[in-house]
Each structure stands twice: as C-alpha cells, then as structure tokens.
C-alpha cells in the first residue's frame, strides 16, 4: 500500500463567507489568475473539496495585459518599450489606477503619467497619437477610453472563465452557488457576465469586500486547519525507488550493480494520485528495506507530476519534477537487508510532512516539502520494496 499526500490550492482561503451554506455544493472563482474549485460545506461548517483547483491565466492580469497592449498601440512599440525601461515605478502606479477603474462599467479616464507625456511630446503632439486609434481620445492631460473599448479588454478573460465553468458544471456536481472572491471579483463587468451566463443555473454571490474575504479566510484557516476536512490532490505524488532489474520490463540505462546484485534505478512509486481525496491530518505509512546489507544512509527523493500515470515508470521522464528529499541515518546494520525503514506521510495544514524512521536504531528525519519547487535533481534512492 502506497502513502498518500497532497498539495493545497487556493480554495482554502475562502472560508470566511461560506459557513452559512450548510449541506450545499458551491463553486469558488478567485484570483488575479483564475482558480476555480468545487466544495461541499459539511455540517458544522468544514469544507470538503470535490474538484481540484483549476488555475489558469484568464484572471484580472489578462485584462491588465490588454490595457497595456492598447497603450502600446497608441504610443508605438519603441516609445512604450523605452517608457517601461526608464520609468517602471510610474508605470506601476498607472497600472494600479487602471485596476481601480476596472471596478466600473463605464467610460474611463486615466491621467497620463508625466514622463510618458514628456516622452510622447518629443515625438509629436499628443493629439496625433490618438487620431488613428478607435475608442480612445485625448482630453486635457487624460486618456479617455470608451466603455465599449474597455469591455473588449475583458473578452479573452471572460471567454476563458466561461469555458472553464461550463466544463466543471458538466461533471455532474449539484452546484447551487457560484462564489466570486479576490480582487478581480470587484469588477462589475465580471460579475454581470457570470450572472448573465450562469445565473439561471446557480445563485451568483460576491461579498462586499471580496479581496478582504481571501485574507480573512487565510487567518481562519491558520487558526483552525480542520476547517478543510479534505482536499483533492492537484498532482500525482511519488517517491523514487530501486527494484530488482528485469530486462523484460526495465530500461537498460537504468541498470546498476552492487554487492547484492543488479538493480533498476529511478522507479516512480505512486503515493497519491491526481484527483484523489485526501483527508486532513491523515497519516499513512509505507515500508522499505535497504538495497545493501552494510548501508548506513537511506535517501528518499519525492516527485510530482500532472501526467497521467498510465505508462509512467521513471522519475526522470517528461513532466515529472523533484520536490524534495531526505537522508536517514541507519547505523545498526546487524540485520543487513532485512532492516525495516518506515516512511510516514502526514497531511495537515497546507504542507505534507514526510518522516523516515529506521526501526532498529530509532533514527528519524523529517521534512516539509516545498510544493512550488521547480528544481530537478538526479538522486539515486537506495531503498527498495519487497
């Protein structure tokens, strides 16, 4: 039996506004990137995740990108590139002003930053930059953009969100509420779009301060992690093992030899599968033995992947990344390869704790794995599973 462990997604931050909807299924949409999750609120207010967080890049940042592309179209690539390079702080302030304006569904006016205006005037009169671009005009030091043009900046984002939501709704969940959270949820255009497209299927909810709800939910979860009763694993997690080499099923380049015979290296042993439900504060165990009788150190290297595991055999295949490792001392070699090495995996809060135990000597070591790590290392795991 393999261990189970999991990665927490953004849905855990949404607790503060959910506890009143007892025994109902709801779908949460949050973030500058869009993270969509499906939860059931259990009796007592704890959350059970039913669908893993499906993140994509169709959030508010996509709208910001469209705004910047439009400004580039107005002022030309060369002028805009120079402005971004020379005045990044001023550009950041401008983008903040734009993010505030996104809350409304109306014509918008953006004060032209001083340095952008000065650089533009060196090329030509300001009015000329706006003559050939539709939906925008120059108005006494401000850039005025029509409501229709502003809405066009949302098209890619809203289409992507609509597609993602429809895919989830087709999966058979009885969803009664769609809950909009995060800074992007403050956009009237987004809220109206979701209501228009899904209001006949679900009740669309948005708290009065959707960004603060994220922060408050994070605090509540930190105080009481049990509020998330279970989660759905976003990845398949595993550990690298060695096994007796079998030329009929193992790659020749994975063969290595020690005093105990021939072995196959880098085998991916599944601990938890993608989309598998994992309970909070659950501990699972797995048992291993050394690959050499006089071995005094045991290495465990952990991996994750979004690949389908059918056909996946080795940890160095495409789409598999290393997320951490631990080294366990095993000083008592009296029982040789018959020593038992336990690996305990505990699921709690937003991290997975892996603890390795040498049963004979009592030696232990543990680590909290960093699920955001992207570094890949080549590590030979000198344990095997009989």
Q: Keywords, please?
A:
386 residues, ATPase_NBD, Substrate Binding Domain Of DNAk, Chain A, domain 1, 7-stranded mixed β-sheet, 5-stranded antiparallel β-sheet, alpha+beta, 3 domains, Nucleotidyltransferase, domain 5, Heat shock protein family A (Hsp70) member 12A.2, transmembrane, disordered N terminus, 20 strands, elongated
Radius of gyration: 27 Å
CATH class of the largest domain: Mainly Beta
CATH architecture of the largest domain: Sandwich
Largest sheet, spatial ordering of strands: 8-7-1-2-3-9-13
**Average pLDDT:** 83
Question: Describe it for me?
Answer:
With 386 residues, the chain is of the alpha+beta class. It has three domains: 10-54 and 165-232, Nucleotidyltransferase, domain 5; 60-153, no CATH class; 236-384, Substrate Binding Domain Of DNAk, Chain A, domain 1. It is 26% helix and 33% strand. The protein has helices at residues 60-75, 77-86, 88-101, 114-121, 126-129, 147-153, 155-169, 188-198, 210-223; strands spanning 25-30, 34-41, 47-56, 108-111, 136-139, 142-145, 175-181, 203-205, 228-232, 236-244, 255-258, 261-272, 277-279, 283-290, 297-305, 320-329, 341-348, 351-358, 364-368, 383-384. The strands form four sheets. Strands 8-7-1-2-3-9-13 form a seven-stranded mixed sheet, with helices on both faces. The chain has a five-stranded antiparallel sheet with strand order 11-12-10-15-16, with no helix packed on it. A five-stranded antiparallel sheet has the order 19-18-17-14-20, with no helix packed on it. Helix 1 crosses helix 2. The N and C termini lie close together (12 Å). Residues 1-24 and 371-379 have low confidence and may be disordered.
